[in-house]
Structures are given as structure tokens and as C-alpha cells.
Amino acid sequence: MRRPAACLFDLDGLLLDTEPLHSAAWQQATRQFGLDLSLDQLLALRGRRRLDCAEQVRLWIADAGLPVPSTPELLAIRQPIAEQLLPSAQPITGAFGLVAACQLQSIPMAMVTSSSRAAVALKEAPHPWLSAIAVRVHGDDPLLGAGKPAPDPYLLAADRLGVQAEQCWAFEDSVAGAQSALAAGCLVHVLLPSGMDHAPEPLKALATACNMIRRLSEVTKVLAANVSIEAF
Ligand SMILES: [Mg+2]
């Protein structure tokens, strides 16, 4: 395994521990329309753009035979809940060290997130270390076609860095995100949810195509040592 041309980082659930907060916001908002989302449904929302999530939630509300809110109605309920919760997100263990290792090794970096520019600004305000990742692809990027799981976000990030996506390492925690990075041709490291040694069912299908890791420090050690990774 060669040194990566660049490292492309997802944000939510990979650098910042926002996913439980996003899930709580969707759950609280959806309950106001009479539906309790299952764990599988909440996992399926991870890694996707807010509007794509809203469409999915509206379908589930319709499937449950409940009156379906418009997307603006649903988001108007969710937005203040999310804005209250998200600034309290903590870094994922090892995220700071991994970004620092890339800096030290002069490996170019990009953030490839389904979150909007405004949402990223809200979440990263308490985390100035994230400014080391200067190149960004946001979910509302004007040059972005489809969002994750389509390959577009990772292809756009590689293009902005002037590298081939096939020579990049991508870091993801969600099914939609890992599918996006795989489709772009990246080597994909998938961070398992904390406390899980094995991939949960939705991630299992990707286990053979991706490098499943339990901690970001597993990759940091490799980068710091600048050695080959035969196991991939
Ligand atoms: Mg994620």
C-alpha cells in the first residue's frame, strides 16, 4: 500500500461525534409527526444530505399511514433542535492525531461532508484544529451533483486537490459515505461505531471492500511510520 496522494475525511461521526446528536434531532422532529424511528432507520440516515434525509423520513411517515409533512415543515421542526445540540459535539477519539499526522507528513487533506457549509460552521466553531483541513466539499456545494452515496463528493474533492481519487485514502463511518468513496475509487477506511469490534449489519456488506478500523489511531500509526499496510 503506497502513501496516499491525499486523505479525504468525512466529518460527522468520523472527525466529530455528531451522529448521536443528528439522530436525536431526527428522532425528536419525527416524533412530532407521530413516528418513532428505529435504530436501523436512524443508521440509514447517516452520511446523507439533510434534504435527502428529509425525503427519506417523509417516505417512512407515509409508509406508517400518518399525515406527511412537507419537507420545509419537517426541517423547520428539526433545525432548531439540531442547532441547539450540535455545538456540543466532541472530537472522535484519535481525530486530532490523524489530522496532525497528515500535516506532519505533508499529505494534502480535504473534508468531504454531506453537511451544508452553514452546518459545518456551527459544528466546527469549538474545534479550531479542523481549520487544518482547508479544502472542503459541502453537501450544498454549488459544483456538487449528487450527494453520498453517489461518487460525486469524493471525485470533486480529489479534483480540488489535483489528485486522482484512486490514489486517495477516504475515511468514513456510514454506509452511504463508504459507498460514495468506493464508487469514486478511493481506498476506504471505515471507522466502526465505538464499542463495536465487528461491523454492524448495514456495514457488513462493505467489509470486504473497505478497511474496517476500530480506532483512527490504527491509521495514524501507519502514516507516522510511513510503512506498507499488507493487510489491506
Ligand atoms: Mg459520517
Report on the architecture of this protein.
The chain has 232 residues and is α/β, with parallel strands linked by helices. It folds into 2 domains: 6-17 and 90-225, 3-Layer(aba) Sandwich (Rossmann fold); 19-88, DNA polymerase, domain 1, CATH 1.10.150. It has helices at 19-31, 39-45, 50-63, 71-85, 95-104, 117-124, 152-161, 175-184, 201-204, 217-225; strands spanning 6-9, 109-112, 135-137, 168-172, 187-191, 211-213. A 6-stranded parallel beta sheet has the order 3-2-1-4-5-6, with helices on both faces. Helix 8 links the parallel strand 4 and strand 5. The longest helix has 15 residues, at 71-85. It is globular, with a radius of gyration of 17 Å. The chain starts with 5 loop residues before the first strand and ends in a 7-residue tail after the last helix. Residues 227-232 have low confidence and may be disordered. Bound molecules: magnesium ion. Residues 10, 12-14, 46-47, 173-174, 177 line the site of magnesium ion.
Quickly describe the structure.
This protein is of the alpha/beta class.
Write the layout of secondary structure elements.
Layout: E1 6-9, H1 19-31, H2 39-45, H3 50-63, H4 71-85, H5 95-104, E2 109-112, H6 117-124, E3 135-137, H7 152-161, E4 168-172, H8 175-184, E5 187-191, H9 201-204, E6 211-213, H10 217-225
Parallel strand pairs: 1-2, 1-4, 2-3, 4-5, 5-6
Helix pairs in contact: 1-4, 5-10
The protein binds magnesium ion (MG).
Magnesium ion (MG) binds at residues 10, 12-14, 46-47, 173-174, 177.
Largest sheet: 6 strands, parallel
Which bin fits the share of residues in helices?
40-55%
Q: Averaged pLDDT, please?
A: 92
What name does CATH use for the topology of the largest domain?
Rossmann fold
Q: Please indicate the percent range of residues in DSSP E strands (runs of 2 or more).
A: 5-15%
Number of strands: 6
User: Which stretches are poorly predicted, pLDDT < 50 over at least 5 residues?
Assistant: 227-232
| CATH architectural type of the largest domain | 3-Layer(aba) Sandwich
Q: Regarding CATH, which class of the largest domain?
A: Alpha Beta
What radius of gyration results from the CA coordinates? 17 Å
Q: Pairing-aware structural class of the strands and helices?
A: alpha/beta
Supply the number of helical segments: 10
Order of strands, widest sheet: 3-2-1-4-5-6
Shape: globular
Distance between the termini: 8 Å
CATH superfamily of the largest domain: HAD superfamily/HAD-like
